[in-house]
Batch of 3 targets.
Target 1
Amino acid sequence: MFSLEQIKQAYDKVKTGPDFTQYIQELIAMGVEGYDTYTQDSHVVYYGAAGHQVHTDQKHPDFALATTVNKPLLIQNLVQHQDGQSDYITFCQQAAQCGIAKWRIDILEMTCTYLTAENHAVLIEKIPV
């Protein structure tokens, strides 16, 4: 079973977009099957086999979650974030402002899905390997 400390050690190595692929590979080796990042407070829930889960603490006071989705702005913010033009917390705030409650990384499917509070998929990206 993986621990939050193991995940943190792997995450601390991520400095740029290309580092994300190595991070995912390390998570796979640990047995992480996926994780959800919640935009309102940036806490993360990592999950694995047999219902194993670990949770991070909230990272900031809650951001307001928009009740309507702005997919074009989400895509624009995402492209800028992936290009290194914003940090993690800024992107979480931008995603919340676009109506995204969380994003789910599915390591088994190698996808990242941006979801509303009602769990409706807004955007699905393939994770490069």
Target 2
Amino acid sequence: MLSWILRGCRDECSATDQLKQARDVFVAKEAVLQKKISQEMERAKLFTKSGNKQAAMQCLKRKRYYESQMNQVGSVRLRIDTKEKMIADNMVNK
């Protein structure tokens, strides 16, 4: 699943470097999604004040979609962190 992220780092990078790069990508994605969520909330508030309920509902639907993507990114980051800990434990045990 993470192979598309790790392609740029073939032989010259270690597994921990690859995981750090992947984590950085997902941190950036989380930041972008958080920004989009806050923008959609602001737009929904503006549409509600102006009386355009349909547009406000569309903003809230997009916000909910971005939140679901955030959850997915969070779960991938959790798996990356788990793998990093496993590798670190393996290095200590050797």
Target 3
Amino acid sequence: MSHLAEIILSAAQSLPEGGLLSAKEFLHVGSRAAVDQTFTRLTREGKLMRVGRGVYAAPVASRFGPRPPSTESVVQAITAVNGEVIVPNGATEANVLGLTTQVPTREVFLTSGRSRKLQLGNRMVELKHGNRWQLVLGRRPAGMAIRALSWLGPEQATTALKVLQTKLPEAEWIAMRTARAVLPSWMARAVSEASENA
């Protein structure tokens, strides 16, 4: 194994699960072409996984053999490296909050960054650029509720908000009311009406 490959593998193995590597991090060790070729070779040998364009991660050793890193660990790594806000989409949030029994078949996240796809073994994870109002309260329950309402739409908002009133603590209701200025009109109105009827 080349010295460059050893350096890249050592860096990959020092990262927590889902930690990401890119060729730019190793340009002080070799030329861009050499670094790219080494990443390609290590991927072909199964020592690294290509997660996205120019982004790699180490497979995780398990008793059943190597597996891809978890989606959540990769999302956390992207958040840490790029400073993006990344949250589950409305369909996932609606399911988690018990507003639907539908289980999403695809892993889709909303991001403040650019839209792209990640390949984690045989799993495809989609990052879609989200609107500011969809990301405004991040991963807290009020943010989850806003994304769930967005997915459910205006027709189901009133019913969903009645269910959410039994699930969300008062602090989350206050956060949702505070965020009304950035929400779509129909959602801001629904949140206001639900608050008055509480």
